[in-house]
Amino acid sequence: MVVEDESLIAAHIQRQLEACGYMVSALASSSEAALQRAAQIPLDLALMDVRLTGGLDGIETARVLREKFNLPVIYLTGNADDLTLERAKATEPLGFLLKPIEERRLYSTIEIALYKHRMETRLRSIERWFATTLKSIGDAVIVTDTKGVITFMNPIAERLTGWRLGEATGKTVGEVYRTVNAETRTPIPSRVNEALLEGVTVNPISRTLLLSRKGVEALIDAIAAPVRDRSGNITGVVLTFRDISERERVEHALQESEARFRLLVEGVHDYAIFMLDPDGGVTSWNAGAERLLGYRSEEIIGAHFSRFFTPQDVRRGQPARNLELAAAEGRIEDEGWRMRKDGSRFQANVIINTLRDESGGLLGFAYVTRDITRLKQAEKQLKDSREQLRALAAYLQSVREEERTRIAREVHDELGQALTGLKMDLAWLDKKFAEIRNLPVVRPLQQKTREMPEVVDGIISTVRKIATELRPGVLDDLGLEAAIEWQIQDFQKRTGIRCEFTSNLKDIRLCPDRATAVFRIFQETLTNIARHAGATRVNIKLEAGGGKLLLEVQDNGRGVTARDLSGSRSLGLLGMRERAVMLDGEVNIIGRRGKGTTVGLRIPLIRPGDVTSR
Does the pTM exceed 0.85? Predict the structure, then answer.
């Protein structure tokens, strides 16, 4: 853009510029027109007449263009006094051209001006980037000149020293940055002078305490480094420092924690606790490890941990597999036989935790071992005891069923026969009394005799019921399916609860012991429904398939709860489960409040020693 209030001169300059290969985007004869054109179109350079008519002269107009639009200016002038030149220089023009303007002079001045403007723009961008970087980093930064005078400091440095940049600029670094020895409180020089004189980076002095302007003290690390130009000449110093008070506190706390942990580990005698390197070499050893495995620390440090394994496990590569698995999963737990120094073996529980650094690199393994030989022996004894108790319970159940069968048979046969004989005798007496019925004394006796057969019939019915409850004959005679059907009919008659029964058992017959156990579990289930469920309907399913027998009983009652299953009145449920366990099966009880309970029994159809027939 050419800003010239004389139109002939402006047109001449335009022709010269176009001859040099430049494009003139705008011509302006006043400051107002120049500012309006600059706001409307993008411009690279303005040729500005120093003396303009109107509200603003050329110098004021150039200042506005630079400040508002960052537009570089070259002044055009025929002559100017010293005052005008001083005013013009204050606006930082990129050049002066004297009228009349030579074309070669015009071209060189414009090229130099454009290059200078590009460099200044780039320099300002770099300065802004540098200032932003220094303000955003986490360390405090103070920049000085070659005399140790502060020229810049970032916000972290402002906070730590208590000085603002505007206050500190122009002061020596010693006035703003005051340090003392944390132990002796003697002053420590800033070391900026040392960096200036020796031209090398000066490393921090340990235990340096920074005293801020506000009286706050902070433990710091500081480095002073000289700044050099392209020729290698020192142009200043960058002093970088950081507050390490929190780091010092954390390191101190970590050291105390490590000391406490070391004392804790050393004080543990029931566990062998030691560290392994990535290859399995022992790197630490506690008193518990010495007591459990028999090695002293000086004997075992550096040795491979495979010596704690049995020879068979070593040949199978168990030690290496354990470390590979721990490295892959982070933690593993293992149980097995381990070896002591004297060759004795013990059963061990082993936990291996992987140790890694912040980048995920493998540092080693933490190894914790305890002797569980007695625990395993106790577990075996408990298991054997449980098996013996179950065997005893099974034997008692068998004896009980045999006794019930025997009693039921005797009650049914002997007592039933005796009662039948009694009924026959009563019929004989009634016949005899009929022959002598004319005798008055005989009539009451005859009447009593005729009433007694009904009593005997009731007793016979009761005896049969008792015999059936002791051992239903249909179970022995017709099998499990028929016995369950009979039990369902009796249950419906006694309770009025409607039952539906489905079965695919057909001709499959279980051995007597298994059939009896399933039937008793079913009886106990119906008893619980009658007593506690409040149900109106029961669905029973008996199925055989896949070598398993499934009995499922589902009611629509109130639904059993977890408290009911674990309460003191749940001995009947416990008995059901124990019967199932004796048959290598299981009982599952699932209740939903307000929606009923489902009892499921699942047992193998055949067990070694069982005999089935089809």
Answer: no
